[in-house]
Design brief:
Order of helices and strands: HHHHHHHHHEHEEHE
Organism: Lacticaseibacillus hegangensis
Number of strands: 4
Radius of gyration: 24 Å
Pfam families: DUF2179 (PF10035), YitT_membrane (PF02588)
Helix content: 55-70%
Largest sheet: 4 strands, antiparallel
Strand content: 5-15%
Number of helices: 11
Protein name: YitT family protein
Subcellular location: Cell membrane
Strand order of the largest sheet: 2-3-1-4
Membrane topology: Multi-pass membrane protein
Number of domains: 2
Protein backbone atom coordinates (compact mmCIF):
# COMPACT_ATOMS: atom_id res chain seq x y z
CA UNK A 1 0.00 0.00 0.00
CA UNK A 2 2.83 2.36 0.87
CA UNK A 3 4.48 1.79 -2.55
CA UNK A 4 1.24 2.58 -4.36
CA UNK A 5 1.05 5.95 -2.63
CA UNK A 6 4.51 6.88 -3.94
CA UNK A 7 3.26 6.75 -7.56
CA UNK A 8 1.87 9.94 -9.17
CA UNK A 9 -1.62 8.41 -9.25
CA UNK A 10 -1.42 7.37 -5.61
CA UNK A 11 -0.15 10.76 -4.52
CA UNK A 12 -2.85 12.46 -6.54
CA UNK A 13 -5.56 10.34 -4.94
CA UNK A 14 -4.20 10.99 -1.46
CA UNK A 15 -4.04 14.73 -2.18
CA UNK A 16 -7.66 14.68 -3.36
CA UNK A 17 -8.77 12.88 -0.19
CA UNK A 18 -6.78 15.29 1.98
CA UNK A 19 -8.21 18.39 0.28
CA UNK A 20 -11.73 16.96 0.61
CA UNK A 21 -11.20 16.48 4.36
CA UNK A 22 -9.88 20.03 4.77
CA UNK A 23 -12.71 21.55 2.73
CA UNK A 24 -15.26 19.45 4.60
CA UNK A 25 -13.95 20.60 7.97
CA UNK A 26 -14.24 24.22 6.86
CA UNK A 27 -17.65 24.11 5.15
CA UNK A 28 -19.36 21.77 7.61
CA UNK A 29 -17.85 22.76 10.97
CA UNK A 30 -15.85 26.02 11.03
CA UNK A 31 -17.65 28.32 8.60
CA UNK A 32 -21.24 27.62 9.75
CA UNK A 33 -20.23 28.81 13.23
CA UNK A 34 -18.11 31.72 11.99
CA UNK A 35 -14.86 30.45 13.55
CA UNK A 36 -11.74 31.43 11.59
CA UNK A 37 -8.91 29.21 12.81
CA UNK A 38 -6.05 30.73 10.85
CA UNK A 39 -4.91 30.01 7.31
CA UNK A 40 -6.29 31.20 3.99
CA UNK A 41 -9.63 29.56 4.76
CA UNK A 42 -9.76 31.39 8.08
CA UNK A 43 -9.27 34.69 6.31
CA UNK A 44 -11.96 33.65 3.84
CA UNK A 45 -14.37 32.96 6.70
CA UNK A 46 -13.71 36.46 8.06
CA UNK A 47 -14.42 37.97 4.63
CA UNK A 48 -17.57 35.89 4.22
CA UNK A 49 -18.86 36.90 7.65
CA UNK A 50 -18.05 40.57 6.98
CA UNK A 51 -19.15 41.22 3.39
CA UNK A 52 -20.64 37.95 2.16
CA UNK A 53 -18.04 36.96 -0.46
CA UNK A 54 -18.14 33.18 -1.02
CA UNK A 55 -15.52 31.36 0.97
CA UNK A 56 -14.06 29.48 -1.99
CA UNK A 57 -13.62 32.66 -4.01
CA UNK A 58 -11.60 34.46 -1.32
CA UNK A 59 -9.49 31.32 -0.78
CA UNK A 60 -8.78 31.10 -4.51
CA UNK A 61 -7.83 34.77 -4.73
CA UNK A 62 -5.53 34.54 -1.70
CA UNK A 63 -3.91 31.34 -2.95
CA UNK A 64 -3.32 32.86 -6.38
CA UNK A 65 -1.56 35.78 -4.72
CA UNK A 66 0.57 33.35 -2.71
CA UNK A 67 1.43 31.43 -5.90
CA UNK A 68 2.65 34.65 -7.51
CA UNK A 69 4.79 35.44 -4.46
CA UNK A 70 6.15 31.90 -4.42
CA UNK A 71 7.08 32.08 -8.10
CA UNK A 72 9.07 35.28 -7.74
CA UNK A 73 10.39 35.00 -4.17
CA UNK A 74 10.73 31.29 -3.38
CA UNK A 75 11.54 29.65 -6.69
CA UNK A 76 9.95 27.26 -9.13
CA UNK A 77 10.28 24.23 -6.86
CA UNK A 78 8.11 25.72 -4.13
CA UNK A 79 5.64 26.98 -6.75
CA UNK A 80 5.22 23.49 -8.22
CA UNK A 81 4.90 21.89 -4.78
CA UNK A 82 1.99 24.11 -3.70
CA UNK A 83 0.27 24.56 -7.07
CA UNK A 84 -2.07 21.55 -7.00
CA UNK A 85 -3.22 22.14 -3.43
CA UNK A 86 -3.60 25.88 -3.89
CA UNK A 87 -6.00 25.38 -6.80
CA UNK A 88 -7.57 22.15 -5.58
CA UNK A 89 -8.68 23.42 -2.16
CA UNK A 90 -10.87 26.28 -3.50
CA UNK A 91 -12.42 23.82 -5.97
CA UNK A 92 -13.29 21.41 -3.16
CA UNK A 93 -14.67 24.31 -1.09
CA UNK A 94 -16.92 25.20 -4.02
CA UNK A 95 -18.09 21.61 -4.52
CA UNK A 96 -18.82 20.73 -0.87
CA UNK A 97 -21.98 22.53 0.31
CA UNK A 98 -21.67 24.78 3.34
CA UNK A 99 -24.15 23.72 5.98
CA UNK A 100 -24.35 23.33 9.75
CA UNK A 101 -24.50 19.66 10.73
CA UNK A 102 -23.49 20.14 14.40
CA UNK A 103 -25.38 22.81 16.34
CA UNK A 104 -23.07 22.95 19.35
CA UNK A 105 -20.26 25.39 18.56
CA UNK A 106 -17.56 23.80 20.71
CA UNK A 107 -18.33 20.28 19.49
CA UNK A 108 -18.27 21.49 15.90
CA UNK A 109 -14.83 23.05 16.40
CA UNK A 110 -13.48 19.88 18.02
CA UNK A 111 -14.73 17.64 15.20
CA UNK A 112 -13.63 20.13 12.57
CA UNK A 113 -10.14 20.40 14.08
CA UNK A 114 -9.63 16.64 14.01
CA UNK A 115 -10.83 16.32 10.40
CA UNK A 116 -8.77 19.33 9.34
CA UNK A 117 -5.64 17.94 11.03
CA UNK A 118 -6.04 14.54 9.38
CA UNK A 119 -6.28 16.25 5.99
CA UNK A 120 -3.22 18.43 6.53
CA UNK A 121 -1.29 15.51 8.01
CA UNK A 122 -1.96 13.45 4.88
CA UNK A 123 -0.75 16.32 2.72
CA UNK A 124 2.47 16.54 4.73
CA UNK A 125 3.07 12.81 4.30
CA UNK A 126 3.29 13.26 0.51
CA UNK A 127 5.33 16.47 0.84
CA UNK A 128 2.62 18.63 -0.70
CA UNK A 129 0.79 21.75 0.47
CA UNK A 130 -2.62 23.37 0.29
CA UNK A 131 -0.92 26.74 -0.24
CA UNK A 132 -2.35 29.70 1.65
CA UNK A 133 -0.48 30.89 4.71
CA UNK A 134 2.35 28.36 4.26
CA UNK A 135 3.98 30.83 1.86
CA UNK A 136 4.54 33.95 4.06
CA UNK A 137 6.54 32.01 6.70
CA UNK A 138 8.82 30.63 3.96
CA UNK A 139 9.38 34.17 2.65
CA UNK A 140 10.14 35.42 6.17
CA UNK A 141 12.60 32.58 6.63
CA UNK A 142 14.40 33.29 3.37
CA UNK A 143 14.73 37.03 3.74
CA UNK A 144 14.57 37.66 7.51
CA UNK A 145 15.95 34.32 8.85
CA UNK A 146 12.77 33.86 10.89
CA UNK A 147 11.90 30.25 11.71
CA UNK A 148 8.89 29.00 9.68
CA UNK A 149 7.09 27.78 12.80
CA UNK A 150 7.26 31.27 14.33
CA UNK A 151 6.17 32.92 11.09
CA UNK A 152 3.24 30.56 10.66
CA UNK A 153 2.16 31.07 14.26
CA UNK A 154 2.29 34.86 13.83
CA UNK A 155 0.24 34.81 10.60
CA UNK A 156 -2.37 32.40 11.97
CA UNK A 157 -2.63 34.29 15.26
CA UNK A 158 -3.28 37.56 13.42
CA UNK A 159 -6.07 35.88 11.47
CA UNK A 160 -7.49 34.48 14.72
CA UNK A 161 -7.51 38.00 16.17
CA UNK A 162 -9.81 39.10 13.35
CA UNK A 163 -12.49 36.89 14.92
CA UNK A 164 -12.89 39.44 17.73
CA UNK A 165 -14.37 42.37 15.75
CA UNK A 166 -16.30 40.05 13.40
CA UNK A 167 -17.63 37.23 15.60
CA UNK A 168 -16.63 38.07 19.17
CA UNK A 169 -14.21 36.88 21.85
CA UNK A 170 -15.71 33.40 21.98
CA UNK A 171 -14.92 32.80 18.31
CA UNK A 172 -11.34 33.95 18.93
CA UNK A 173 -10.91 31.56 21.86
CA UNK A 174 -12.37 28.70 19.84
CA UNK A 175 -10.08 29.51 16.91
CA UNK A 176 -6.96 29.37 19.11
CA UNK A 177 -8.23 26.13 20.66
CA UNK A 178 -8.78 24.70 17.18
CA UNK A 179 -5.21 25.50 16.12
CA UNK A 180 -3.81 23.81 19.22
CA UNK A 181 -5.95 20.70 18.83
CA UNK A 182 -5.21 20.46 15.12
CA UNK A 183 -1.47 20.63 15.80
CA UNK A 184 -1.65 17.68 18.19
CA UNK A 185 -3.67 15.51 15.83
CA UNK A 186 -1.58 16.58 12.84
CA UNK A 187 1.62 15.48 14.56
CA UNK A 188 0.09 12.06 15.29
CA UNK A 189 -1.02 11.64 11.67
CA UNK A 190 2.29 12.81 10.20
CA UNK A 191 4.54 10.66 12.38
CA UNK A 192 2.17 7.71 12.76
CA UNK A 193 0.46 6.12 15.72
CA UNK A 194 2.63 2.99 15.90
CA UNK A 195 5.34 4.57 18.03
CA UNK A 196 8.07 2.81 19.93
CA UNK A 197 10.58 3.66 22.61
CA UNK A 198 14.35 3.53 22.21
CA UNK A 199 16.03 2.80 25.54
CA UNK A 200 19.76 3.33 26.06
CA UNK A 201 21.27 1.48 29.01
CA UNK A 202 24.72 1.78 30.62
CA UNK A 203 25.37 -0.81 33.32
CA UNK A 204 28.19 -2.88 34.78
CA UNK A 205 25.74 -5.78 34.58
CA UNK A 206 25.06 -5.34 30.88
CA UNK A 207 25.54 -9.07 30.20
CA UNK A 208 22.69 -10.00 32.54
CA UNK A 209 20.47 -7.26 31.12
CA UNK A 210 21.30 -8.42 27.58
CA UNK A 211 20.33 -11.99 28.46
CA UNK A 212 17.04 -10.79 29.96
CA UNK A 213 16.22 -8.71 26.88
CA UNK A 214 17.14 -11.54 24.50
CA UNK A 215 14.69 -13.76 26.36
CA UNK A 216 11.98 -11.41 25.07
CA UNK A 217 12.00 -11.84 21.28
CA UNK A 218 9.80 -8.76 20.68
CA UNK A 219 12.55 -6.32 21.72
CA UNK A 220 15.18 -5.05 19.29
CA UNK A 221 18.68 -5.04 20.81
CA UNK A 222 22.01 -3.53 19.72
CA UNK A 223 25.27 -3.52 21.69
CA UNK A 224 27.56 -0.52 21.23
CA UNK A 225 31.12 -0.06 22.47
CA UNK A 226 31.43 3.33 24.17
CA UNK A 227 33.98 5.33 26.15
CA UNK A 228 33.10 7.51 29.14
CA UNK A 229 33.43 11.20 28.36
CA UNK A 230 35.08 12.06 31.68
CA UNK A 231 36.44 8.73 32.98
CA UNK A 232 37.65 7.56 29.53
CA UNK A 233 36.66 4.08 30.68
CA UNK A 234 35.47 1.73 27.89
CA UNK A 235 32.12 0.09 28.32
CA UNK A 236 29.08 -1.36 26.55
CA UNK A 237 25.83 0.49 25.91
CA UNK A 238 22.61 -1.32 25.08
CA UNK A 239 20.17 0.20 22.59
CA UNK A 240 16.77 -1.45 22.97
CA UNK A 241 13.75 -0.81 20.75
CA UNK A 242 10.55 -1.64 22.60
CA UNK A 243 6.85 -1.37 21.93
CA UNK A 244 5.01 1.24 24.02
CA UNK A 245 2.99 -1.29 26.09
CA UNK A 246 6.18 -3.15 27.06
CA UNK A 247 8.18 -0.06 28.01
CA UNK A 248 7.41 0.02 31.73
CA UNK A 249 8.01 -3.71 32.16
CA UNK A 250 11.40 -3.34 30.46
CA UNK A 251 12.46 -0.49 32.76
CA UNK A 252 11.33 -2.38 35.84
CA UNK A 253 13.24 -5.46 34.66
CA UNK A 254 16.44 -3.47 34.16
CA UNK A 255 16.08 -1.87 37.58
CA UNK A 256 15.58 -5.28 39.16
CA UNK A 257 18.89 -6.45 37.70
CA UNK A 258 20.85 -3.24 38.33
CA UNK A 259 19.23 -0.47 40.41
CA UNK A 260 22.14 1.84 39.53
CA UNK A 261 21.93 1.41 35.76
CA UNK A 262 21.95 4.60 33.68
CA UNK A 263 18.81 4.61 31.49
CA UNK A 264 17.87 7.08 28.78
CA UNK A 265 14.57 6.63 26.94
CA UNK A 266 13.47 8.53 23.83
CA UNK A 267 10.48 8.22 21.54
CA UNK A 268 10.93 6.74 18.06
CA UNK A 269 8.23 7.99 15.73
CA UNK A 270 9.24 5.59 12.97
CA UNK A 271 11.28 2.38 12.84
CA UNK A 272 12.12 0.88 9.42
CA UNK A 273 13.84 -2.31 8.46
CA UNK A 274 15.21 -5.08 10.62
CA UNK A 275 13.06 -6.76 13.23
CA UNK A 276 12.07 -6.38 16.81
CA UNK A 277 12.92 -10.03 17.22
Amino acid sequence: MRNKLTTPAGRGLLLLIALSLIAGSINLFYAPHGVAAGGATGLAIIVQESIGVPLWLTTLAFNCLMLILAWFMLGRGTFRRILAGSVGLPVMLALIPQRMIVADRLLAVIIGSVIFAVGVGLIYRIDASSGGTTVPPLILQKYLRLKPAIGLFAVDFLICLLNIPVAGIEAFVLAVFAIGLSSLVMNAVETGLDRKKVVYVMSERHAAITAAVQARTDHGLTLQSVVGGFSKTPGTMLMIVVEQPDFRALIDGIRAIDPDAFILAVEATEVHGGSLG
